[in-house]
Design the sequence.
C-alpha cells in the first residue's frame, strides 16, 4: 500500500459495466516526507475520499476486494483516509 | 489504473487462441494534464476505444477481470474512455 | 520479500471494513548496503514491529491477508519478520 494525495476526479461514461457507479480518482503517490513520488495514477474509491485528502491505496488483484462480491477491473483502490502520520 | 492516449493498433494474425478477435491498441501513458511520456504499452480494448482517445487502463492480473477477459493471457486492458479529468493543484 | 526499515506510523479512522484494527506502518525498502531503495510503502504489521526496526516485508496480497488474519482483505504488503542480522558475501 502507498500513501497518496487525491488530485482530482475522472469522468468516464463509456466504461466496463463493472465500473458503473464507482468513483474514479486521480492520486499522486507520496513518500513519508510528503513529497510526490512517481507517476500519478487512477484509483477506485472505496471509502468516500475527496480531492485534496491524504489517503492510502492498495495495488494489484487485491484492489477489487473492497467491492466483493463484485469484481470490478481495478488494479488500484483507495482503502483508507489518513488522519495523520508520523515519521521518525 | 493509468490514464493513456490511444496512439495506434496492433495487428497480430498468429496469437494465443484466447486472444482471437480481440482488438489490441498501442497506448501512451499520460499525466492528468494529458501530457504523454515516452513509454507505450499494448492493451486489449474492451470498450471500443479509438485512435486519439484518452482511456483508462488496468494492469497486471486485474486486467483479466475486465469484461470478456477471464482466463485470457493479458496484463493490460482498456476499461474506460475518459470524458474529463478534473484536477485541482 | 524485501528488507525495509520501519520509518513511521499511520492513523486512518475511515478505512475499509476489513482493515479495522490493523496496525499500519510506513516502511522504507532498503538496498543491501542499508541505503533507501524506492518509495515508502504502507504495510500491515503482523509481528509487533516498531519504528526504527529493520524488518522483512512481503509484497503479495495473499500473504498480507494472512498476516492480518483475514481472507480477501484489500492489503498488498505485510511485515512478517524483524531482521536480526543480514549477512552478505561478495
Sequence:
Amino acid at each position: 500500500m502507498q500513501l497518496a494525495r487525491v488530485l482530482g476526479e475522472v469522468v468516464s461514461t463509456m466504461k466496463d459495466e463493472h465500473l458503473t457507479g464507482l468513483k474514479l480518482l486521480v492520486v499522486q503517490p507520496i513518500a513519508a516526507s510528503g513529497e510526490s513520488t512517481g507517476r500519478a495514477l487512477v484509483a477506485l474509491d472505496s471509502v468516500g475520499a475527496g480531492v485534496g485528502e491524504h489517503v492510502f491505496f492498495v495495488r494489484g488483484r487485491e484492489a477489487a476486494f473492497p467491492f466483493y462480491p463484485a469484481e470490478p477491473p481495478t488494479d488500484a483502490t483507495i482503502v483508507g483516509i489518513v488522519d495523520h502520520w508520523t515519521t521518525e | 489504473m493509468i490514464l493513456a492516449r490511444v496512439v495506434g493498433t496492433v495487428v497480430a494474425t498468429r496469437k494465443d487462441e484466447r486472444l482471437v478477435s480481440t482488438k489490441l491498441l498501442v497506448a501512451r501513458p499520460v499525466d492528468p494534464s494529458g501530457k504523454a511520456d515516452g513509454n507505450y504499452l499494448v492493451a486489449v480494448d474492451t470498450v471500443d476505444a479509438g485512435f486519439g482517445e484518452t482511456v483508462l487502463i488496468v494492469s497486471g492480473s486485474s486486467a483479466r477481470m475486465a469484461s470478456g477477459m477471464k482466463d485470457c493471457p493479458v496484463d493490460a486492458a482498456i476499461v474506460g474512455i475518459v470524458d474529463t479529468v478534473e484536477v485541482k493543484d | 520479500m524485501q528488507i525495509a526499515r520501519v520509518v513511521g506510523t499511520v492513523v486512518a479512522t475511515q478505512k475499509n471494513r476489513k482493515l479495522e484494527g490493523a496496525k499500519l506502518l510506513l516502511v522504507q525498502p532498503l538496498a543491501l548496503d542499508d541505503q533507501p531503495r524506492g518509495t515508502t510503502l504502507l504495510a500491515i504489521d503482523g509481528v509487533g514491529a516498531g519504528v526504527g526496526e529493520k524488518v522483512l516485508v512481503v509484497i503479495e496480497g495473499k500473504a498480507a491477508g494472512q498476516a492480518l488474519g483475514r481472507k480477501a482483505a484489500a492489503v498488498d504488503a505485510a511485515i512478517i519478520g524483524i531482521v536480526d542480522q543480514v549477512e552478505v558475501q561478495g
